[in-house]
Design brief:
Layout lengths: L1 H5 L45 E4 L2 E4 L11 H18 L4 H13 L3 E2 L3 E3 L2 E7 L7 E5 L5 E5 L10 E8 L5 E8 L4 E8 L10 E5 L4 E3 L3 E6 L16 E6 L8 E4 L9 E6 L5 E7 L6 E6 L7 E5 L6 E7 L2 E6 L7 E6 L9 E4 L5 E2 L2 E3 L2 E8 L2 E7 L5 E5 L6 E4 L8 E8 L2 E9 L4 E6 L10 E9 L5 E9 L10 E4 L14 H8 L3 E5 L8 H6 L7 H16 L8 E6 L1 H12 L6 E5 L18 H4 L6 H10 L13 E7 L8 H13 L6 E6 L10 H18 L11
């Protein structure tokens, strides 16, 4: 469930205030910038209100509280004026057109997802190149394929995207969710596979949900009661698990779990085992730690049994063999292990090690009658195959050093698929024979990018407290370490999310210009398990910022770059990171690129599901100590007037209902009012897009032409450094 909630937190696609605004303005209202010299900006006026909150006897002014009202005309007008100002600046940067052309050119290659079997059919996702959304295909007997479901037909502008797809047990019925304008609120449609006809009314107001079928009769899904007021920012903290029986209206869907006011659970998910015997329920109050429940579906009216009765660990059932349950857990195992237990006596005290904890973090999958233990070794993949008896069959040799994903499927499949990628290698696909233990190439992309001209190297640098932090640095071969290379430092550092090597078209274009890509595995992430995560949470959050600052210092000291050629980038929790380090060490960076960031640390928990992030952040209501800690680094509150700030391009979206755009609005307004220096401090607000998932390719290309153009221009480049393909 947590992977579903936070997977897109890592992404950097830039989003889109609830009223549409014009984003391409040609009438100048910014200074002429062609000489590339720093100059005082005449920013759009932002009204200051008189709101003052008191925290433990301390008054804190919140002059931009009115920008939290995403439905107001005044907020919409502010967005229009800010976008006009920003695009007048961007439109004068000569680099953008060349970057857009190259992004479009490089993006235009076929991309393929792993095949998967449902019933008697095999499906896969494919993008022909520049399609806004991936298309779902079904294979035919002659080896050809037909379009099965095309999300590009859902809306004219490509902003309605496909979410989950889930087939009934015999594969005859498909339930799939869609997101409109990037919203986390979804609709679920139910289709007859043979006729492709929609079977019944669409389910609405579904959020943070999987779709898990019980036979062909119906499925389980999760949502909140629809909030009063704005869908975008209203608080949601009572998640419920529902069962939808086919042929009945949504109003009759039964609440299976949740809805008890005295036991609020912010995140609830349910999944049915492959044999239809058990319903497993996970319930959480935060993004870390969950209760685990079990319901035996083979006996009518069986009660729900609690297996884990606290939120001190993360556990989920990955498989069952009859009444034997296989559970992945970090209980007494910070790097995770798999345990077994009989469903008749499922309590923690009866758990037995199946695959014990090791020094490396475990993320297992199942398929073809085997377990696949995916380990992270310094953020790089290692895969081992295990039998159902717990015997290690073999270590699977991977194509190189990078990230392998896949090795999952149904028990009766003899062939599984996996993908492999790293920072300079586009994702390729391999077929794996589970019985023979042999991998064969299945598909490789035909892309106009010369991977062989680039190299990735992992270094370990020392953070402020002496902790060794890994960082992978990727660039063209033959790089001269003269301190003059444009460099992008990317970080995240939160929510137990691991940043592993993967290819990105946008980053490839950056590297083609001679740019260096440096990705640091900061504390707060999951690269080294629960201990690594906890070392970057709450009153230890400063460790994350120190790790990022130390990465920048390493790059400068070792002559990869200089502060005049260094940009720092991050999205969501990573946007918070960028805001914090630009406040604390503005001298280190020439450009800051915070995307959809969590910027108001005193009020984040009052919007949507933000209260669920308290495990990582704590809240301003917890204690005076926590309040003082949060206000000390909160990007909105810690802006300085006594230093020169980097050039900053804030990016957000008008439909982001996870990290609401008010965070970025208030941060940009405060920057323009308070920050010292002559560099541009701007916000780019995309319309009809959300936190990242499902952003159309066309929007992403435009966004990154703007982002890289802004970055290179403010590093002093008036023309593109040039390709070396």
């Amino acid at each position: 469930m947590k992977h579903l909630l936070f997977a897109s937190l890592v992404g950097l696609t830039i989003m889109s205030c609830s009223k549409k605004v014009q984003t391409q303005i040609t009438t100048p209202n910014t200074p002429e910038i062609s000489k590339g010299l720093p100059m005082k900006m005449n920013y759009p006026e932002t009204r200051k209100g008189d709101v003052v909150d008191q925290y433990f006897g301390t008054d804190v002014a919140d002059p931009y509280r009115w920008l939290e009202d995403d439905m107001s005309d005044e907020t919409a007008d502010w967005v229009t004026r800010q976008n006009k100002f920003t695009f007048n600046y961007l439109n004068q940067i000569p680099l953008r057109e060349g970057l857009k052309n190259r992004l479009t050119e490089l993006w235009n290659y076929e991309k393929l997802g792993s095949p998967f079997k449902e019933g008697e059919q095999t499906y896969f996702f494919k993008n022909n190149g520049l399609q806004n959304q991936y298309v779902m295909y079904v294979e035919k007997e002659d080896g050809a394929s037909d379009v099965f479901l095309d999300p590009n037909t859902f809306s004219e502008d490509g902003t309605t995207s496909l979410g989950n797809v889930s087939f009934s047990k015999d594969g005859s019925i498909l339930a799939y969710s869609i997101s409109e304008g990037g919203s986390d609120w979804r609709k679920v449609l139910i289709m007859d596979v043979a006729t492709k006809q929609i079977k019944e009314d669409t389910l609405v107001d579904v959020k943070f949900s999987g779709i898990s079928w019980y036979g062909n009769e119906g499925f389980y899904y999760s949502s909140y009661d629809k909030p009063e007021g704005s869908e975008l920012s209203a608080k949601t903290d009572q998640h419920k698990l529902y069962y939808h029986k086919l042929g009945t209206p949504q109003s009759e869907d039964k609440v299976i779990f949740g809805g008890v006011e005295a036991e609020k659970r912010r995140y609830v998910g349910g999944s049915v085992t492959e044999d239809d015997r058990y319903l497993m329920i996970s319930a959480s109050v935060s993004t870390s730690g969950n209760e685990l429940y079990l319901k035996d579906l083979s006996v009518p009216n069986n009660p729900i049994i609690r297996m884990v009765n606290n939120f001190d660990s993360d556990s989920y059932v990955i498989e069952n063999e009859g009444s034997t349950l296989y559970i992945v857990t970090n209980l007494d195992a910070p790097n995770k292990r798999i345990v077994t237990v009989d469903a008749m006596k499922p309590n923690v005290e009866n758990w037995i090690d199946f695959i014990p904890e090791t020094e490396n973090v475990l993320s297992p999958t199942t398929g073809g009658g085997y377990f696949f233990a995916h380990y992270m070794v310094d953020a790089v993949s290692k895969i081992e195959q295990y039998s159902y008896e717990g015997k290690m069959i073999k270590e699977i040799k991977l194509p190189g050093v990078g990230t392998a994903s896949g090795f999952s499927g149904k028990k009766n499949q003899s062939k599984l698929y996996y993908s492999f990628t790293n920072y300079n290698t586009p994702s390729s696909m391999y077929a794996y024979d589970t019985r023979m233990g042999i991998s064969k190439p299945y598909w490789a992309p035909q892309i106009d990018f010369a991977s062989e001209n680039y190299e990735s190297n992992q270094v370990f640098y020392t953070s402020k407290d002496g902790t060794k932090i890994p960082m992978i640095i990727t660039h063209k071969k033959g790089l001269i370490l003269d301190g003059n290379n444009p460099t992008l430092l990317y970080g995240y550092g939160g929510f137990n999310i691991s940043i592993t090597p993967s290819f990105s078209i946008t980053r490839a274009v950056w590297m083609e210009q001679g740019g260096i890509l440096a990705v640091a595995n900061l504390r707060g992430g999951g690269e080294y398990g629960k201990v690594w995560h906890d070392a970057g949470t709450q009153l230890k959050k400063q460790n994350v910022f120190d790790d990022c600052i130390a990465a920048a210092e390493y790059l400068i000291e070792n002559k990869y770059t200089s502060s005049d050629k260094l940009a720092v980038q991050g999205g969501s929790n990573g946007g918070l990171l960028v805001g914090a380090v630009c406040n604390q060490r503005p001298d280190l960076f020439k450009v800051g690129l915070p995307a959809v960031g969590v910027m108001d640390m005193l009020r984040y928990h009052t919007f949507t599901a933000g209260a669920g992030w308290a495990y990582d952040y704590g809240t301003s209501e917890d204690s005076e100590e926590m309040f003082n800690y949060l206000i000390g680094y909160s990007p909105v509150h810690a802006i300085r007037s006594d230093v020169d700030y980097p050039a900053i391009l804030v990016t957000t979206g008008d439909h982001d209902d996870r990290v609401v755009p008010a965070h970025s609005f208030k941060y940009a307004a405060a920057l323009q009012d308070k920050a010292g220096g002559m560099n541009p401090l701007m916000i780019r607000i995309e319309t009809n897009a959300g936190h990242g998932a499902g952003t159309p390719v066309s929007k992403t290309i435009d966004q990154y032409a703007d982002i890289w153009g802004f970055t290179l221009f403010n590093m002093g480049y008036k023309t593109l450094p040039g390709y070396n393909r």
